[in-house]
Amino acid sequence: VTTTYYVRFEGSCDTTSTVSTTVYLLDTSTAPDEATSDRDNICPGDGSVILSYAGGIMGIGSVAVWYDYASMTSSIGKGNDLSVPAPVDETTYFVRFEGDCDTSTAVSTTVHIYPEPIPAFDEMVENACLSGPLYKYSVMGQAGSTFTWSISGGTIVSDHSDSVLVDWGSVAGIFQIAVIENTINGCMSESLSLDVTVGGPDVDLGEERRFCEGESVTITPTGNYSYQQWHDLSTGQSYTADTTGLVSITVYDAVGCTAEDSVQVTSYPTPVVELGNDTTLCGAMSLILDAGNTGSTYMWSTGETTQQIEVFVGEQFISVEVTNPAGCSGSGEIHIQPCTPEEFFASIANTITPNNDNVNDTWQIDEAMAYPEIEIEIFDRWGRLVWRSSRGYTENWDGRNMNGKDLPMDSYFWVINLNDGSELVNGTITIIR
Prior knowledge:
The protein is mainly beta. The protein has one helix and 37 strands. The N and C termini lie far apart (184 Å). The model has no long low-confidence stretch (mean pLDDT 95).
């Protein structure tokens, strides 16, 4: 206890008065009864914990000092209700009173750590094909965990928590898929991510190919790919076609992605041009020449470029060159011969039988249609004019004279005037009754 000490001189003659000094006794500490934390079980590094103690007596000059190691060599803080960052591993915290006279024993509390979630891919694809199939991504984690997925590019089309099916679409690039694990204890993992390269080969067979019958065309694809296969399962660098059809190719890259293309090849026959036999045109006659082979291009010797042209009287050699869409060419020619009226009318009928039986009752001259100004005169054997047509021979002669009376059975002379400057044409015709 605190004590005052006195001293005096005591001798033979007397005893002196006393002087004194006091020794004060300081209080010692009594250790805390217990230590606690506001969170005994936590996810690694999740926020903070508050450390508290209760009971005990602090001596003169004492303070509560906290440690996170039993060696208690480095303090983490002082006082009651101390807030410290949440640990990432299971940690025991110690507290004791440290004062001027003594250091008490320590009490402790332990903060337990739930297992840290560390998800890992167990199924993944790092190289995906453009417009390819659905790709599966799955992860392993703690029992009872749920998983949250995110993606850049592409689309998650099916989510089963620990696995997803992804459509990476038709845009090439490097995209990312990521997942976060949420444990049954509420702990959240760091984001686990994977870069995915979306791409594939490309191929182009070009435009439609046209070629002439008997020839062939070689198709060489362009593009970026590792190897190829044609529709007939051949694997050459190019394909040669000699018949009409669809040529297709499938190409592959190093990771097995594919691309396809096709092109139509058409074999065209060489144009056959039939303009008909050489012919004679007279008067106002004309002839339509048709080079056929619809859809082709045409070059006539007349300078015209249509499939059909109309030609008229006059000796001429007319030719045409026909080129079809494949560039195949064919040609034809026709001779339009000069017209001689005598020869032109040489084959007209030389008899009529006007007996009303509707057979050869009139003198039909088809050749007259070629001359719109034609006039025909009929004379008897004595040279007398018995009948004259109107211009153009618009009504066939029926064996009557100009007064409408039947002429007797006999032979008559006819004269044709074409009224175009040509010489007269003449001959005979017989009436038979």
